[in-house]
Amino acid sequence: MGKLEDSEKVTYVKSNKVSETIGEAFFALPMAGLFIASLGVLAYQIYLWLYAGFWKSLSAAIVLEKILPDSFFVWLQDKNSWVGAKKIITGLTNMSLALFLFICGVIWIFLAIEVLELIDKKKRQSKVDYK
User: Fold this and answer.
1) pLDDT per residue over 95-113, tens digit each?
2) Pairing with 77, which of 7, 17, 22, 97 sits 20 to 30 Å away (CA)?
3) What predicted TM-score, i.e. pTM, was given to this entire model?
4) β-sheet bridge partners, residue 59
5) What does each C-alpha distance from 11 to 7, 14, 17, 28 come to in angstroms?
6) pLDDT at 46
7) Bigger pLDDT: 131 vs 22
8) Is-contact 35 107, C-beta < 8 A?
9) Which residues contact 104 (CB under 8 A, 6 or more apart)?
10) Which residues pair with 96 in a beta bridge?
């Protein structure tokens, strides 16, 4: 690649920093949202227990039934196919909603770290020489 003029260097660096910030926010916001949601669900359950004296059990099935299409659960009714996958799905749906959201947040962290490392590696490989 050819050399960049001084004004082009400044524009390139500024746009690069903005895109890095947006990229990091893209991964950080859902992660923070999942953790805050898990804390909110747990706080709601604790509040009900302190106020009324009973523990309101909220399972992940509540969320999964709202998010996933109805056709997703049809294949779970066949007892002879996808037995291992059914055990995983059943375990996830029976899990506490707060724990489910927390685990999703942890998985998102690991995925975000891997993606950001891949992006950083690619940038280092195709870095423009400013000299």
Assistant:
1) 889 998 899 888 988 888 8
2) 97
3) 0.66
4) 96
5) 6, 5, 10, 26
6) 92
7) 22
8) no
9) 34
10) 59
Q: Are 120 and 112 in contact (CB under 8 A)?
A: no
Question: Do 117 and 109 touch, CB atoms closer than 8 A?
Answer: no
| Confidence label for 131 from pLDDT (cuts 50, 70 and 90) | very low
- Exposed, middle or buried by CB within 10 Å (0-12, 13-18, 19+), for 95? middle
Domain positions in the chain: 6-58+96-125
Cα-based distances in Å from 121 to 13, 59, 117, 125, 127: 17, 40, 6, 6, 10
Instruction: Please name the residues in contact with 71: beta carbons below 8 A apart, sequence gap of 6 or more.
Output: none
Angle (CA) 80-86-92 rounded to 5° is: 165
Spatial distance between the Cα atoms of 81 and 89, rounded to a whole number of angstroms: 13
The answer to whether 4 touches 130, Cβ cutoff 8 Å, is yes
**Distance from chain centroid for Cα 127:** 29
| Alpha helices (runs of H) in the chain, residue ranges in sequence order | 6-52, 61-67, 70-74, 83-94, 97-125
